[in-house]
Prior knowledge:
144 residues, mainly alpha, 2 domains, two-stranded antiparallel ribbon, 4 helices, binds zinc ion
Amino acid sequence: MLFRSLATDPNSRSRSVHDKRPYNVAVTLTLLHYLCVVGFLTSLVILSLNPKVDSVELLIGFVVATGVTWLIAYLKRRSARCPLCKGTPLLDTGASKHAKAYRLRPLNYGSTAVLGILFLHRFRCMYCGTPYDLLKKPSSQRYH
Ligand SMILES: [Zn+2]
């Protein structure tokens, strides 16, 4: 499993993230967007099985919700920056990826990082290859 390389990487210790808020906001909104996509697909099936006006309204509602949550999640993922390289680890750009960057196919690197934060509170920056642990306290907050 690819997540294993994140969970136990003997060669590099994961770093802490000082300001976790942008990451938590971006992951929460991206999760909301994924749920809207699931709702959209579900309403598509409902419409094909039950072609009525109510089904069309449900579909239109989910199309709008999916679009709006995508836009908000995109902006939040773009604002979550890597503390070291100032790249956007939750959003793929055209920039070249680090040798240690990884993704769960068919997802892209950014979506893999979102899932990593969601399930493991860890991610690896795809540009500089630095592993981060969101549960780890910054050194300035330790031993107090
Ligand atoms: Zn980075």
